Amino acid sequence: MSSSAIESFNNWILAARLMPIMNLVEELRSKIMIQMSCRREEASRWVSQICPDMDAKLAKRIDKGRSWRVYKSKTGLYEVKSVPAVLVNLEEGTCSCGAWQYNGFLCAHAATVLVKTCGAEGSLAGYIDPFYHVEAYRLTYQDNIHPVLAMDIPDFTEGSTRVIKAPKNRRQAGRPCVKRIRSRGEEQSSARPMKCARCHKLSHHNRRTCKEATDD
User: Fold this and answer.
1) What does the alpha-carbon distance between residue 204 and residue 216 come to, in Å, rounded to a whole number?
2) For the residues 85-106, what does the mean pLDDT come to?
3) Which of 56, 111, 145, 204 is 20 to 30 A from 94 in CA distance terms?
4) Which backbone phi and psi does 9 adopt, to 5 degrees?
5) Range of lowest pLDDT (13-27, 34-48, 90-104)
6) Structure confidence by residue, pLDDT tens digits, 50-72
7) CB 50 within 8 A of CB 128
8) Do you find a cis peptide bond into 52, omega within 30 degrees of 0?
9) If 0-12 CB within 10 Å is exposed, 13-18 middle and 19+ buried, where does residue 186 land?
């Protein structure tokens, strides 16, 4: 229900969006080729088992649980005295807070149990989904995009018979819409509510669009 990924990508290709289609495709190929190469080289220098950003996040979660007390119920089952108290099951890989099983990454409660009772601070990666491991990141960018020589690109310069000109469309009357259409379920605008003349309630509708039940 969010278009954040598309908006981020649109901002990334902002300069290329107005290019002709062939130039746009070539610009996108170059940008992705450079991005993959940079990330491949960066990942080759990492020495930890999980990606640095997630490693830093894990360190913060361990630090957060320094003051919590941990009690053992049986092998693999622990109670963590946080606020509120939670149950951690190491054998099933679950925590009653729901965060560990939701995203496959150790929550603060599970990390605290492993560090305080198992002394496993150096081997926490075994309890984290392989998706967050450095090896998975390197596999993502192990392939490369090959450069395309200029001689392989057809001639699309002005005057070429390959040039397809844009259709002649008439501009519609009125100002063009610049406001993004929100998807269903997305938070609506925080504009000041108005008073409906039909139901007399403060809302974001008027008399014409009112659907409230009234005595009339």
Assistant:
1) 21
2) 93
3) 56
4) -65, -40
5) 13-27
6) 999 999 999 999 999 999 999 99
7) yes
8) no
9) exposed
The average pLDDT across 114-121 equals 78
Contact 94, 41 (CB under 8 A): no
For strands 94-95 and 86-89, give the pairing: antiparallel
Q: In the chain, which ranges are continuous DSSP H helix?
A: 4-12, 21-43, 52-64, 99-103, 108-117, 134-140
Instruction: Measure the CA–CA gap between 41 and 138, rounded to whole angstroms.
Output: 9
Q: Which residue's entry shows tokens 């729901």?
A: 98
What the block records as the tokens of 11 is 């901002």
Residue at token pair 């940079």:
38
CA 39 – CA 214 distance, rounded (Å): 61
Place of tokens 């075994």: 126
**Phi and psi torsions of 174, nearest 5°:** 90, 170
Of 45, 13, 46, 10, which is closest to residue 32 (Cα–Cα)? 13
